Amino acid sequence: MDYIDPHIHMVSRITDDYATLARMGCVAVSEPAFWAGYDRGSVDGFRDYFRQLTEVEPKRAAAYGIQLFCWLCINAKEAEDVSLSRDVLAMIPEFLDHPNVLGIGEIGLNKNTKNESIVFLEHLDLAVRYNQSILIHTPHLEDKFQGTRMILDMLCDDSRIDRSRVLVDHVEEHTIAEVLDRGFWAGMTLYPVSKCTPERAADMIEVYGVERLMANSAGDWGPSKPTAVPDLIFELRRRGHRESLIRKLVYENPIEFFSQSDHFQFAPRDGNHVTI
């Protein structure tokens, strides 16, 4: 089955991972800007990183028949430095016209601090002013519930935000309902040691269905598995779910959400150009 991974960090993956994804049926990936494993010290460091996302990685992916789209931001871990964050925010519009950029992300909170919230709100304003979709990072483990509520409240307090163009990622059993109830898209991240397993994701699907829901691997520098989405496909098949439901989750839903960006020019294997 063809699928799209809507959140994976291929800059941190080896070339063999592209070959493996292609063999497993991956036809497109979406790569949000994220933490590089260390705090970058200048706006020029981010400019070089954005060039990697917009110029280098799409070519690496294309060599294996995979389309790569990306998102731009300064991530929550580095948002404590408000001055640097504002320099990066001022630079981001240089890249927003690039043909593989889908929007602003992954923005959100890490430790739920005041500075993180300031930079998050300024990212939202940038997204609105430039008519960009938004991809949200919710905090890890003990900070997740409070951080998710804070993020949702800030989003809902801004009447300019189109909730159908916001993907709130890394949902778990205690956060998924509120994300969906407030009208946003939700992303389930399949990690081997945190967030959720394919089995837990399948449980959530059986409770909430697949409307406005996606699944991703968020493969990065740490413990992660770039083929986690196929693992979920296999788990849903094992439980007897219809192929049409699985296809909606891992293929049709990403296309529906990403197509809200003018830059999502997606060409399926059959060669017919997709626009929704």
TrEMBL record:
Molecular function GO terms recorded: hydrolase activity, acting on ester bonds; metal ion binding
Domain of life: Bacteria
Pfam families according to UniProt: TatD_DNase (PF01026)
Entry keyword set: Hydrolase, Metal-binding
Keyword Metal-binding recorded: yes
Keyword check for Transmembrane: no
Family: Belongs to the metallo-dependent hydrolases superfamily.
PANTHER family: HYDROLASE TATD
Protein name, per record: TatD related DNase
